[in-house]
Design brief:
By secondary structure, this protein is mostly helical. It has 21 helices and no strands. The radius of gyration is 23 Å and the shape is globular. The two termini are 22 Å apart. The model has no long low-confidence stretch (mean pLDDT 83).
């Protein structure tokens, strides 16, 4: 129970920072969709470029975040030595990556479709290299339980990033005139390029706040330890690549297989619409930040399986609640996309959110093989899901466009989730509360249908009232079955007898 209380506390800190951070980041969605019309393809470039960087970040960290937690919590290992070995190895790989991109910048830029904008590719390569280095630093903060510093730095980056975006995309365009002093720092012809230049500046600036943690590099690199860590982490790298491809492959593949000259335009519509669905990724990420250290730390607890089962149930409950909330207020949330020509893509939102729920469940199921050091299973499951997703994209995108991307995500995550559950129950059985999970899922499905019908057939205010009632009903079910008001902090005392 203590573990669950710590999980709740840390999830609150990580969750609030993640939710607030994502909310602040959402401010960039209306900014970009207002600055770059769907027809311009500008947002399609942003979507495509960040898909590549997400994949590269996984490759450059090569599973060392999870590997660090595993070895730092192993008996007989020195956590400081584990940290320094992780940081040095990831830093060296990241530096080598930047050098290679610099040497082969021309061919790489041409292959990606940005032959005339090699600077964008170079800048994003530097950004992702710094991000990889920082990933280990942020993992160390989580290991030390420094949730407040972790959250502060994450939010600090976002605030700075938004401020500079507003400056370059709102303020400067209004006051700039040819030949003015402002021309030394602002050139309107750079356009979408400023998105990438601002990102590299903010990422670099945040590194300055890790002085104390970077000093830990003085513990040096232990080659013997590194070999053991690499033996553990190589399946994690395969797992990570397959996992991130499940999230980004559609955005990388789409421009290459879509039939039509407007591939970047269609990708921009899809990318903008999926931003609304990212609240699910936000919840999954916050849960992971808090849950992963607790799982490894409590792996020797005789009641650990009960903790994992309860964690799974509560994860599903609250992701279903988030799903219903987004769908209930989609008619409001759609105004985040400032140009209405992006609204045609809103039909992918429930599908993408469903895929994110499946991915979150798969993440929760993944601990059985991590805790018995059989990470190869994760690679197998993720590769299987990735193959399904990529195949669906290649076959169906030419015919169905970005709708195929959304459904391919469901197919890919669903495959990995089912395989992990089936094999996991044989290798390291956990008695998940399937009956409770099924009840919540069925109730959520019924309420979702009601929300869609009300949004389609009722006026705005009537639909809003009906949808709000649906949310209240689902919350009432949660309170009645699993979260009595008397158990809540602060306000709970008013409901106790």
């Amino acid at each position: 129970m203590a573990s669950l209380k710590n999980l709740a506390k840390d999830t609150a800190i990580y969750g609030v920072s993640s939710i607030v951070g994502r909310f602040l980041n959402y401010l960039l969605v209306p900014l970009y969709t207002a600055t770059f019309t769907a027809a311009s393809g500008g947002y399609g470039v942003v979507t495509n470029m960040y898909a590549y960087t997400a994949l590269l970040l996984v490759i450059l960290t090569f599973g060392m975040e999870t590997t660090f937690f595993r070895f730092a919590n192993k008996e007989g290992e020195d956590p400081k030595k584990v940290f320094s070995t992780s940081l040095i190895s990831v830093g060296a790989v990241a530096a080598l990556f930047v050098v290679l991109v610099c040497v082969f910048l021309g061919p790489i830029s041409s292959w990606m479709g940005y032959a005339d904008h090699g600077s964008w590719v170079m800048v994003m390569a530097i950004t992702v290299a710094i991000d990889a280095f920082q990933a280990i630093l942020f993992s160390y903060l989580r290991y030390q339980g420094k949730a407040v510093k972790f959250a502060s730095l994450k939010l600090g980056f976002i605030v700075l990033n938004i401020a500079l975006n507003l400056l370059f995309f709102v303020v400067f365009p209004k006051v700039w005139t040819p030949g003015s002093a402002l021309s030394k720092v602002y050139d309107p012809t750079i356009g979408v390029g400023y998105v990438f230049y601002i990102n590299v500046f903010c990422t670099s600036f945040m590194t300055l706040f890790f002085g104390k943690e970077i000093a830990g590099i003085g513990a040096g690199l232990d080659s013997s330890l590194l070999r053991r860590m690499l033996s553990y982490t190589w399946p994690m790298l395969i797992l990570g690549i397959a996992g991130i491809l499940n999230q980004t492959a559609d955005k990388i593949i789409f421009p290459k297989v879509y039939n039509g000259p407007d591939a970047t335009v269609q990708l921009g519509i899809y990318g903008a619409a999926t931003k609304i669905a990212m609240i699910m990724a936000m919840i999954t990420q916050a849960f992971r930040y808090a849950y992963e250290p607790i799982v490894f730390a409590s792996s020797r607890d005789k009641n650990s399986h009960e903790t994992y089962a309860a964690g799974m149930k509560y994860f599903i409950i609250f992701t279903l609640l988030a799903f219903l909330a987004v769908m209930a207020y989609l008619d409001i949330l759609k105004y985040l996309l400032r140009n209405r020509d992006y609204w045609v893509g809103l039909k992918v939102v429930p599908i993408v959110m469903g895929a994110e729920i499946l991915m979150g469940i798969y993440f929760n199921l993944s601990f059985w093989y991590k805790l018995i050091d059989k990470t190869i299973w994760g690679a197998v499951f993720s590769i299987a899901g990735c193959v399904v997703l990529i195949t669906c994209n290649i076959i169906f995108v030419p015919r169905f466009g970005y709708m195929a991307c959304a459904w391919a995500g469901v197919a890919g995550y669903g495959t990995a989730m089912l395989l992990s559950y089936i094999v996991g129950q044989k290798k390291n059985r956990i008695d998940y509360p399937l009956k409770d999970i099924l009840i919540y899922t069925l109730v959520a499905a019924v309420l979702f249908v009601g929300i869609r019908l009300s949004s389609t057939h009722l006026g705005f205010w009537a639909s809003l009232a009906v949808n709000t009632l649906a949310i209240i009903l689902f919350m009432a079910l949660i309170v009645r079955k699993d979260l009595p008001l008397s158990s809540l902090p602060v306000v709970g005392k008013y409901f106790r007898k």
